[in-house]
Amino acid sequence: MFRSQDGHLAIAPRHALRSEQLVFASEVVFATSIALVKISILLGYRELFYVLVWVKRFIWLMIAACVVIFASNTAGLMTMCAPFEANYDPDIKGVCRVSRSLGASLATVINVVVDVILVVIPVCVVRTLKINTTKKFGMSLMFGLGLLLEAWDVEIVDRSMCKYED
Questions:
Q1: Could you tell me if 161 and 104 are in contact, meaning their C-beta atoms sit under 8 angstroms apart?
Q2: pLDDT tens-digit profile of 84-107?
Q3: Which part of the chain is the Rhodopsin domain (predicted)?
Q4: Which DSSP string do the residues of the chain spell out, in sequence order?
Q5: Predicted model pTM
Q6: What b/e sequence results for 29-51 when a residue is b if at least 16 CB atoms lie within 10 Å of its CB, and e otherwise?
């Protein structure tokens, strides 16, 4: 870092490229971690709700969907711009098929849909339990807090996307 002529802190050009490479790599790591967390939650549900056959099948379907979403997100990141270096180096003239903000928005929408499904699965199962209504309500409320957290997450992503520049 150094001070520019107007007194602001600035990044040396040779460090800026490295920074862009790290940001691009972090997007791949983030997609991987999101997929693994969702799969681990689904595997936990599989152990928790092992008695219900329809739930087990739906969980395996959702695991497969998470793997496909992860693969498509990663493939989309890797093939967004040609040549590949144009993804993170603005000096390289390349063709980007999709803007970074549009790609990020699409991935966010898909992830929000999967997250809502992850919250709804246990609520549906709790409804079928043979326990008193108060306990059902309490358990549904506990799992339903996930929807509140998801709404908060969507708001955070929405605010960050408004500031995102291509």
A1: yes
A2: 888 888 788 888 888 777 887 788
A3: 20-148
A4: -EE-TTS-EE--HHHHHHHHHHHHHHHHHHHHHHHHHHHHHHHHHHHHTTT-HHHHHHHHHHHHHHHHHHHHHHHHHHHSEESGGGGT-TTS--EESS-HHHHHHHHHHHHHHHHHHHHHHHHHHHHHS-S-HHHHHHHHHHHHHHHHHHHHHHHHHHHHHHH---
A5: 0.75
A6: eebeebbeebbebbeebbeebee
Domain boundaries, the chain: 12-163
What six digits make up the tokens of 54? 């329809």
Classify the C-alpha dihedral 35-163-106-28 as positive or negative. negative
| Other beta carbons within 10 Å of 136 | 16
For residues 89 and 99, the answer to whether their CB atoms sit within 8 Å is no
State the burial class of residue 126 (Cβ atoms within 10 Å of its Cβ: 0-12, 13-18, 19+): buried
CA dist., res. 118 & res. 41, Å (int): 8
Residues 6+ apart with CB under 8 A from 82: 94, 95, 97
Q: 68-88 pLDDT, tens per residue? A: 999 998 998 888 888 888 888
